[in-house]
Amino acid sequence: MFMKKINKTTRYNMITYAIVVIAYAIVMLLGAAGHISSLMEGLLVPLCIYVILAVSLNLVVGILGELSLGHAGFMCVGAFAGSFFSMCTKEAVPGGLRFLLALIIGAAAAALFGILIGIPVLRLKGDYLAIVTLAFGEIIKNLMNVLYIGRDEAGFHFSMKDTLALGLSPEGKAIINGPQGITGTPHDSNFTIGVLLILLTLFIILNLIHSRDGRAIMAIRDNRIAAESIGINVTTYKLMAFTLSASIAGIAGVLYAHNLSTLTALPKNFGYNMSIMILVFVVLGGIGNIRGSVISAVVLTLLPELLRGLSDYRMLIYAVVLIVMMLFNWSPKAVELRERYSLKRLFHLTTKE
Amino acid sequence: MALLDVQNLCISFGGLRAVDDFEIHIKKGQLYGLIGPNGAGKTTVFNLLTGVYKPNEGIIRLDGVDITGKKTIEINKAGIARTFQNIRLFKGMTVLDNVKAGLHNHYKYSSMAGIFRLPAYYRVEKEMNERSMELLQVFDLEEEASHLASNLPYGKQRKLEIARALATSPKLLLLDEPAAGMNPNETKELMETIALIRDKFDMTILLIEHDMKLVSGICEELSVLNFGRILAQGETAAVLHDPQVITAYLGE
Amino acid sequence: MSLLSYLINGISLGSVYAIIALGYTMVYGIAKMLNFAHGDVIMVGGYVVFVLVSGMGLPPLLAVIVSMVVCTVLGMVIERVAYKPLRMAASPLAVLITAIGVSYLLQNVALLLFGANTKSFTSVVTIPAISLAEGQLMISGETIVTIAACMIIMVTLTLFIKKTKAGQAMLAVSEDKGAAQLMGINVNATIALTFAIGSALAAVAGVLLCSTYPSLTPYTGAMPGIKAFVAAVFGGIGSIPGAMIGGILLGIIEILGKAYISSQMADAIVFAVLIVVLLVKPTGILGREIQEKV
Fold this sequence. Notes:
The structure holds three protein chains of three kinds.
Chain A: H1 2-32, H2 38-64, H3 71-88, H4 95-121, H5 126-145, E1 148-152, E2 155-159, E3 173-177, E4 182-183, H6 191-209, H7 212-222, H8 224-229, H9 234-257, E5 262-263, H10 267-270, H11 272-285, H12 290-306, H13 314-330, H14 332-340, H15 344-347
Antiparallel strand pairs in A: 1-2, 1-3, 4-5
Helix pairs in contact in A: 1-6, 2-6, 2-9, 2-11, 2-12, 3-4, 3-5, 3-9, 4-9, 7-9, 11-12, 13-14
Chain B: E1 4-13, E2 16-26, E3 31-35, H1 42-49, E4 57-62, E5 65-66, H2 72-78, E6 80-82, H3 95-102, H4 111-115, H5 119-138, H6 154-167, E7 172-176, H7 184-201, E8 204-208, H8 212-218, E9 221-226, E10 229-235, H9 236-240, H10 243-250
Parallel strand pairs in B: 3-8, 3-9, 6-7, 7-8
Antiparallel strand pairs in B: 1-2, 1-4, 4-5, 9-10
Helix pairs in contact in B: 3-6, 5-6
Chain C: H1 2-31, H2 38-55, H3 60-83, H4 92-114, E1 119-120, E2 130-132, E3 137-139, H5 141-163, H6 165-175, H7 177-182, H8 187-212, E4 215-216, H9 222-235, H10 240-261, H11 266-280
Antiparallel strand pairs in C: 1-4, 2-3
Helix pairs in contact in C: 1-5, 1-8, 1-9, 1-10, 2-3, 2-4, 2-8, 2-9, 3-8, 5-6, 5-8, 6-8, 9-10, 9-11, 10-11
């Protein structure tokens, strides 16, 4: 009986990995045949970043059941930490190893912020949690805009004022430059690495969900009071999900930073609008549906680019689809209608696998 | 010595004494009933016993250990598990996973073993599945193991909640109106199941109930609660014939 | 003298926050939802006045009244179409995510209609500035009107809730929806009325905000909206005097933070206030505690 069930989840996971691998193979084949425009090529790494962000946010929104609007903030921490490391070790460490270390450092830094923010925030619920995560995301972005770090023979110099206040010697160089951010991060990201990181993210999150920890997290989501009554430590598991999600967002940040020559913390890339866009991916892919997040992040990023005429309407379409999806999936009337006409299987996009 | 020993338990909400000078002594293996009219404070007693509320006064001892004022999680670890009046299942999870969640503190492996699928994961998960299926069999739920908990019919949801509580291997099981909303047939079947749990698991059970028939059928001793105070306490037959109890139930 | 002028600016900005916060706090108190789109209704109010005054040459006061009507209708339509169907939804996240969707919708419709360019807003205030202390302290007409408007709104709203039947119905619904219904109160109508009042106030806030800071973009309402929610939480969500106190304190904190700490960190300071409040006293200055029933 339960053997069948285990096979079902294993099969589900395998299909999810396969979708990613096949999509990768198709892109590589098309690329080799010269069918990929430079515009599309430029989208490949951002695509991976969005997928990783969406999957990791789904861990908090879908599996833990709390709405976080600060995901971009963790991405920001990862981006700056990873990029800073790469800038410092540009000459000293060879490319591949350096990027691996940068990924680890970015993930660790974001995880640290995840713990620091999670401890106070996770005491709150629902709307309050959403708005406070949004607040933290904005604070992180603001802090990055007033952060100056430079290095000379004497070591690192730090300031919250301006470059001059760093007091660098003539040979010294400012690495993080306030609103100008970091310039000259080595271009270590590429599509293959992005896809590998997607697979790693999926591996970690899918396996977590179907383990003892994942059950505890979902139990808290479904009924906190009952979870406590059977001895599940709510704080620990909430924090675990939140921190893991943050650290994976940090990895996405490192990927992002090493794909651009200049890294700055703008509302566009690390503001709450970005967090909300990732949330849109998660909602449209189905809350709690990991594979859905992968697909919706890809489709929603590519669609407006493929249909150029639509790109002005991109966010408008997202907004309308978001509202319609929520009404369709959650309003009691729509639920009743769906059940009556038993089109559930056809339309119920948010079914938990 | 009593398994559960409660003395002088009190709690007030904004000046109202919801539970006042409550005491109870339950021996190991006993099936004990807590009855009383609506709003008498029965569920409040459960919430005090499981640490949802902290008592203003009084002592709660389980198996000789003072658990007064401890957190819900610690109390569960100490050996009290419960069900809820308004069923609280993990609705987005399967029936099997609901029970496995109950095994959380008894079958362990590290997070790393879970994520990287180390041998411990497979070994412990297998044990958990076996243990869960055993529990589900007791409640005749093994056919529904892979169904979502929310798709179970009402009566089976109540049973699943009991199975989940038992999965935590408690010393004392608290059942909050297990027969609420059941038809007479289901109630009868449930009574048999409860008696079976007591015998099969050597369990001590404290049961809140409205249904007098159920109570008189299976409980050896009763406490009657009215306006937060104990009205009568003792052997079932004697308590049910107590004139005060009859007045409280049937009105003046 | 500069401290005093910062304080006055802070009270002025805070008055705008207070007016917006009223919308949040009333809706939260009654419908138990965070209306994420409330800030964007402010922006709509701003654009309506902009079009009527700068485009069609209508007198400012008339434009403000039209803007209030437009926003009232908009608020009620949003509630009816997007929020009401989800009032009984199983997931508490559903309505919040929908509200985020509505917020995005309003921003992007404005973007399509008016473009991303900043429109320079002509102030609707014609009162001249007052000069005090031999010209060392200037108080602009906008500041005077904003603070006065905030006072008038606060008093009117308090009287409305205390003295009228509809106001009492609002209190009843915020206390216990089911019981209010049993007492013959039309809960749906009361919630709609709450959205109507909140949105009309948002229009006023929009005009005042744009008159003081005369640049209008589709995103004008978003940040003040979020900050006003912070103000509502600060004062204690659901409490009308709380919204007032929270709004004004937050305005002062923001202006002083900008002046004495760092202009780039002003937003961060405001959000830090939110975090500290929620951690130290989650119910805010005047809020009440609600315990979950087991």
